[in-house]
Design a protein that fits this description.
- The structure is a single chain.
- This protein is 42% helix and 15% strand.
- The chain is an alpha/beta fold.
- The protein has two domains: 86 residues, Leucine Dehydrogenase, chain A, domain 1 (Rossmann fold), CATH 3.40.50.10860; 124 residues, Rossmann fold.
- α2 packs across α10 and α6 crosses α10.
- The longest helix is centred in the first third of the chain and has 21 residues.
- It binds nicotinamide-adenine-dinucleotide.
- Nicotinamide-adenine-dinucleotide (NAD) binds next to α10.
């Protein structure tokens, strides 16, 4: 039977670490770290994510500012907000909630955020930094996944790791982080010929495909660590992952549930990234 990796408990631990650091800054009379979140339009899922980010900031003591813009906001208006926040010395983190309405070029927007305030780690200079091994901001979900794997006590060095999915925000960066820990990494994707044959090699399996139930128990190596990044809605509207939990859990040694696995970690790591940007900007 797989042991459950409790992402909710782990995320509380990370947020408490951040909270203690913010408290120490406050006690020393320092400026409080500040995260600014911009949301454009009324995508209901985005609104939930943004609310949770603001809530997590309040929990940790990080100051947050929320800029809500209408769906018909022009690219130039949004870029104007980003420029103002880049120039504001009191702001440490700038996050633009994705996706953006179609009149706005997402790439241009991400490029416009000051890399020193890029708490999502999506700016090209942070992406490059990750791949060439420079000290940089690591995207929140991949960073959270590594923290969850570490919480199992399973060492990655020399292990076979398989990542299903090759997106810029999850698949590719998590593969690089696993590589940095000396795992032998395979990236599988939608054109992989025999997915099960690949995933069955994995001592550590990270699934980020956005396909409900894509990985079933027979595709999991006995004793594997299974991290399910997927967030899908099933026919009843219930949140579910990419891994069929019922069949995978008896095979795995460790497994994340959905909800309560990777999701809460993403937000906790955002708080950690905000604090990190603050410290770097403050030269501490
Ligand atoms: P994406 O759509 O950008 O990429 C999906 C990847 O999966 C692609 O590279 C594709 O090649 C691969 N894929 C699709 N179908 C496949 C198949 N049948 N077999 C093998 N590979 C397949 O998605 P993303 O942004 O990386 O997100 C992936 C999932 O993770 C989504 O469900 C998303 O909601 C979720 N997610 C969760 C969090 C979190 O905090 N929990 C954060 C980001 C993404």
């Amino acid at each position: 039977m797989g042991k459950i990796i409790d992402g909710k408990a782990m995320s509380t631990l990370v947020k408490d670490e951040v909270r203690a650091e913010v408290e120490a800054i406050r006690a020393a009379g320092g400026r409080i770290p500040c995260l600014c979140v911009i949301i454009v339009g009324e995508n209901p899922a985005s609104q939930v994510y943004v609310r949770n980010k603001v809530k997590a900031a309040a929990y940790t003591g990080i100051e947050s500012r929320l800029i809500e813009l209408p769906a018909d906001t022009t690219e130039e208006t949004l870029l104007g907000h980003i420029r103002a926040l880049n120039a504001d010395p009191a702001v440490d983190g700038v996050l633009v909630q994705l996706p953006l309405p179609e009149q706005i070029d997402q790439e241009k927007v991400l490029d416009a955020i000051d890399p020193a305030k890029d708490v999502d780690g999506f700016h090209p200079s942070n992406v490059a930094g990750l791949w060439i091994g420079k000290d940089c901001t690591v995207p929140c979900t991949p960073a959270g996944i590594l923290r969850l794997i570490d919480s199992t006590g399973v060492a990655l060095k020399g292990k076979q790791a398989v990542v299903v999915g090759r997106s810029n925000i999850v698949g590719k960066p998590v593969a690089k982080l696993l590589l940095d820990r000396h795992a032998t990494v395979t990236i599988a994707h939608s054109r992989t010929a025999d997915l099960g044959a690949v995933t069955r090699q994995a001592d550590v399996l990270v699934v980020a495909a956005g396909r409900a139930g894509l990985v079933t128990g027979d595709m999991v190596k006995p004793g594997a660590v299974v991290i399910d990044v997927g967030m899908n809605r099933n026919a009843d509207g219930k949140l579910c992952g990419d891994v069929d939990f019922a069949s995978a859990e008896p095979v795995a040694a460790w497994i994340t549930p959905v909800p309560g696995g990777v999701g809460p970690m993403t937000i906790a790591m955002l708080m950690q990234n905000t604090l990190r940007c603050y410290r770097r900007r403050a030269g501490r």
